Amino acid sequence: MSDWGMDLHFLDRESYRKKIIPEELETENTIIIPEGGFSKVGVLGLEGLKNELKEQIDADYIITAVGTGTTAIGISKFLKIKTIGILTLNNLTEIEHNCQEFDLGNLLEINANYIFGKYAKDSQILNEFCDTFYKKHQILIEPTYTGRMFYGLYDLIRNNYFPKNSKLIALHTGGIKLSH
Q1: Is residue 9 part of a domain?
Q2: Cα 30 to Cα 32: distance, rounded to the nearest angstrom
Q3: Phi-psi sector, 15: left (phi>0), alpha (psi -120 to 50), beta
């Protein structure tokens, strides 16, 4: 990021936990990225993904992992495609609150069935799923975000959630397990 001209400022753990932003950083030219990344700027940043995804496939559904909801909200806002967000932590109320700033209609559906207890909790089922997924597809995923999303997607397909011949995009947001 420094090579791209950014000045990075780091906080001590206590300031970060209290979300204390140093006054000298609160300027017009500063973008504060909150924990988890949710902000209006974050959501608006997803507009660039619109053309890239539209060029790949004219989808009926997009499925993505959801932490703070930034990606799912941005996709729903700009692509106007039914988005299924697979929730990865127990923060449905936060996601619903985050959605209120944006006019999404019924485009975003949050599915909380694949949390596996709590955020980042180790799960043998998810670990095995991630390993099997990699062996079958040669695509790295990890059990905290992308593993939960793909596990949920497979389960939704298995249970005939999507109408026959639906075109799906599963958005791999970058979480990978490096142990392979």
Answers
A1: no
A2: 6
A3: alpha
Q: How far apart are CA 44 and CA 52, in angstroms?
A: 15
In whole angstroms, give the CA distance from residue 120 to residue 177.
13
Answer yes or no: are the C-beta atoms of 111 and 147 closer than 8 Å.
no
CATH number reported for the structural domain that contains residue 82 in this entry: 3.40.50.1100
Q: Is residue 176 part of a domain?
A: no
**Whole-model pTM?**
0.85
Q: Residue 84 is encoded by which pair of tokens?
A: 């299924």
Number of domains in the chain: 1
Nearest-angstrom CA–CA distance, 71 and 102 = 13
Per-residue pLDDT tens for 94-147? Answer: 999 999 989 899 999 999 999 998 888 889 999 999 999 999 999 999 999 999
